[in-house]
User: Fold this.
Amino acid sequence: MASPRLETYCCPNRDAATQLVMDFQPKVFCGVCIGSASISLLLTILQLLPKKGQSPRKVPKASSSSTILLLISICDILGGLGMIFRSSVWLGFPGFIANISVVNGTDVWPSTFCVGSAMWIQLLYSAGFWWLFCYAVDSYLVVRRSAGLSTIVLYHMMTWGLAVMLCVEGIALLYYPSLSSCENGLEHAIPHYITTYAPLLLVLVANPILFRRTVSAVASLLKGRQGIYTENERRLGTEIQMRFFKIMLVFVICWSSNIINETLLFYLEMQPDINEMPLKNIRTAALITWIIMGVLNPMQGFLFTLAFYGWTGWRVDLKWRKREIPWESLSSSTAGENAYPAPVNYQSNIHDSKKISTPDSQQTDEAISMLSEGNTSSDERLTRSSPIYQGW
Assistant:
């Protein structure tokens, strides 16, 4: 799981609250992390693999929003691999890990592994948080017709730049002036926790606001496309709203335990003696949420793919074909029709129509298509009702 306590555990003079949770059934905890991360990793990859028996759609190229969804999944996969590797070493080499607690020890490899693995996990999940924020921003810009594939470069610069900067800054402040003297006071720990939880809190606060504005803008687009707001448009808007709701629901489920656990541990740190009897319930709650974090944090990758694409099925097609990759969506009307297997079924029977699409309706349909990408029923309704897709 991803917690700043992983970095503070690398300090030989770690605080009592960190020692409490890290000493609580370490073998069981590492086993839980390995099991949850392995299941999530396998199911996430299964979700993204092409499936048999699904008719592909020919599309020009990926949209910025669909690329962001892929990058979020990649961050979750790499973060899960870091959890599996770290927990496996802890279980397989207990003597190696025990050397972390040795003050002024000559063997630097245990501390190097502790710091490196913790930074890897924090960096990948922090980048995932920033990408999720970029997805909310991009969704809003798409319906405002101010986004495109060119903006993905700016998202890369912001996401990786901020993730690396905050991670390095937090670690540097925590371990200053040396690893053996870190955690001597809250002036070392607090900046580290702030840099770790800042992107998480940003997603919790900003994304619902951006999603809400996007849904309102989508409703205006649908009403203005043909001058009327039919039942199909209403259902499509509801499904886009539901997709945003699922994304935030998964995020809250996977990370609310971290906030609760950190609040409890900080409260315990403020106490003269955390082993006092009046604090028993708080210690118990902190240990329970600690185990819950080990289960839910790694599961974010798989749960996000369910929110993004729905369940794509078990029938994997490993044969290479020129079809649409799972995260591609209908983003533009230019040429270049390389495609890979899509994760959902799309009906190809299009009603004949002599309607001529205008540039405004074309841009509107492209924006709606990007936001509802991965949703079978939404894409089918859009295909039937929109003149831009006539003749595909």
